[in-house]
Design goal:
Structural class: alpha+beta
Distance between the termini: 43 Å
Number of domains: 2
Radius of gyration: 20 Å
Number of helices: 12
Largest sheet: 8 strands, antiparallel
Strand order of the largest sheet: 13-12-9-6-5-17-18-19
Length: about 350
Amino acid sequence: MLDPRDREYAELIVDGCLGVQPGWQVVVGGNPQARPLLEEVCGAVARRGAYALLRISFEGFLAQSLSWVANAPLELLEQPAGITVSELATMDAMLFVAAPDNTRSSAAIPSERMGALQAAYRPANKRMMNHDIPWVACQYPTAALAQEAGLSTEDFAQLLYGSVLLDWAAEGERMRAISAYFDDASEVRIVGERTDLRLSLDGRRMKVDALGSNLPGGEFFGCPVEDSAEGVISFAEFPAVYRGREMTGIRLVFEAGRVVDASAETNEAYLIETLDTDEGARRLGELGIGCNPGITRYMKNTLFDEKMNGTVHLAVGNSYTDVGGVNQSAIHWDLVKDLRLPGSRIELDGVVVQSEGAWLVP
């Protein structure tokens, strides 16, 4: 039975996020279980006089299967496929709807292979990373996503639609009012459990995600000055999942903007291996502030967790040039910190603007 929420979801993607125009070539990618939403998106693109170029993937990859990634010679992984590069260079917009059968399907792929693949397509992906063209990453309810979140499939669906189908005009206005304080500040200080980290936003501005490149949206984010991070941050509240690997108790120490010490309670070797991907992997590419009122619990799902009210997230690796970032890396890994706990706060130039997850500014 068709879910009427899928049409509303599709309209948000096509109009609100992508702004599809007549004649555009829109790459519409996703996993097979996302078919109801993919069909609605393709129909919405068609009604706007644009091309919907459907790309189905068995895993969370738009152009490759895990079987190919696991078996291709390493030198082949290091060279992007010309037809894919051409598509990335000429498409007008892109979206990918993740609807996995198994959220950990890539866990068995050696990090060397995943790193080589990401590095190969980094130049071709610059148009998206720089937000030169509109793109969207979103999800569709599956049993695997629900199980990862510790929810029934129906409860996960309710949470997903409840965090996506919002009054985004009102949410955007609310977030812009708060983010303006960050735009006017030079230094951000994050204090929490085993955490005291300072970084600079001097000369840079935050960007509000209210119908942007993620659904659900509900954050504002920017790129810290690359050599500014000083101090320590612990991500002990929530496990971090990257490329299908789970790590707990991550702790990072920064000096002059670079991670100089890193540890984890589990999978520490993989943490270090990831941070050693390339020169830019140990520097910050993003500071994000979660603001989505529909997301109140941790789900082992970064797309949702980084938008959770009362949290911040820091991404190591590649930054966004449209908000002033210059760091380059094959990785962009968001790590979420809970600031709703006693004693936690955010300071801007020494003034407390958020305490224990509650905003102290309008």
